[in-house]
Amino acid sequence: MQTEEFVSEVARAADLSDQDEAATIAHATVETICAHLPAEQVRELASQLPREMTRAAEDGRTQTTENPAEISQDEFFQQVAIRAERDRAEIEPAVRAAITVFKRALSRGETTDIVLDAPRELDALLTA
């Protein structure tokens, strides 16, 4: 999957007419997910993502620790909103769309690993 396809799928799933908006939210979503995964896991998944999303994953990896902290879904959405410089109340559908496309870009095994490694509170988002 190429970056343009990734962003277009996010835009379509989130009903966004602005591709730049979809790209911003997709980048912020991937970065936030990866900030809450072990660094080695991010390195493994980054190779399966389009170039721009690999950059987002690496941006997230630079913010992670060996044992990422727990985070609630609300905190997750808030962090994405801050990174995307968007309103928290309006961003949730697009973030959910970005997560869906993110998972489709990865192998089934990698997606399973992410669910196992991510904070428990994000399980519902990552398995939906």
Would you spell out the secondary-structure blueprint of this structure?
Layout: H1 3-14, H2 19-35, H3 39-46, H4 51-61, H5 73-84, H6 88-105, H7 108-117, H8 123-127
Region (Disordered): 50-71
Biased composition (Basic and acidic residues): 52-61
Organism: Salinisphaera hydrothermalis (strain C41B8)
Task: Provide the helix percentage.
Answer: over 70%
Q: Characterize the biggest β-sheet.
A: none
Q: Return the CATH architecture.
A: Orthogonal Bundle
What is the oligomeric state here?
single chain
Distance between the termini: 21 Å
- Large-scale geometry: globular
The number of distinct β-strands equals 0
Low-confidence sequence ranges: none
Kindly list the characteristics that best describe this protein.
128 residues; 8 helices; DUF2267_sf; Globin-like; DUF2267; globular; DUF2267 domain-containing protein; mainly alpha; 0% strand
Description of the structure:
This protein is 73% helix and 0% strand. By secondary structure, the chain is mainly α. The protein has a single domain (3-127), classed as Globin-like, CATH 1.10.490.110. The model has no long low-confidence stretch (mean pLDDT 92).
Structure summarized in a few sentences:
This protein is 73% helix and 0% strand. By secondary structure, the chain is mainly α. This is DUF2267 domain-containing protein.
